[in-house]
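Subject: Protein record for review, amino acid sequence with backbone structure tokens
Why sent: The fold of this protein is of interest and is recorded here as tokens.
Notation: Tokens come from a learned vocabulary of local backbone shapes, not from coordinates.
Attached in line: The record itself begins immediately under this heading.
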Amino acid sequence: MVYSNCEGIGSTKVLARQKLGPLPALSLKKLTASLLMGWILSGCRHRLTPRDFAFLQTILAADAEPEPWQRFFREEQALAEILDDERLFRALGDHPFSLQISPQLYFYLLVRHFLREAGIEDRDVADFVAAVLADRIGSPAGAALTGIPGGWTHTTDFLALLSGAGEERRFEIYLAAGNQFLILTGLFPNYLRRRRDRAGAPGVRYYEGFARQAYQALGQHRLADPPTRQVLGRLVNSLTETRQSLNRMAENCLFLEDARDGSPSPPSS
């Protein structure tokens, strides 16, 4: 198999690695632009569950009266500050209650911790990245736009889909492409390195650049409202540091099987 560099995501030119099979039909009924923007802005912090709040109180204020404490959860700024308490991150590894929390809280605490270690204090960027990870938990492994083991892991597939897409579908594809390669470069960099070494495929930096182009195009799309553009702009500006933070998070906190071959991911360089 021969790989070659492609044009940027804004281009319709595609240098295909193989003849592509039929492309899946994307349902705009299931994933409209308005729903996408709502998801971007809601992230994880606004989708916490009652068990999540019980976990917060158990770790931070086990002896406190429930009602006075819980009113802080209804205040956005207060909740954001509560979630920054490092005792919550440490409890993920040593408290049995952590097994009952939602993917939203789990990944928000992880991502927020490792981004802050890298000097990225932006809560909204952490919320967006954590939501991408949390929403992949329920995604079928073979889903073309969201699966890593069986989904699309080549930029040519997304470029081919973009070449025949209308304006609203492009909005959807930009988001899917950015998220897909954020996950791939953040959690599975060694898979990309092995594919580069074995078959001459592009490396991690190339796919990081593709994710950056996808998020830039998404932020510039007419359907993106100002808050969405601001969050995406800040993510684009810190994407390398964000990706490296996810690399450290995967090495230290997650046990992952590399995409395709099923082997545990070794430490990355």
Q: What stands out?
A: The chain has 13 helices and no strands. Confidence is low (pLDDT under 50) at residues 1-39, 259-269. Residues 167-187 form the longest helix (21 residues).
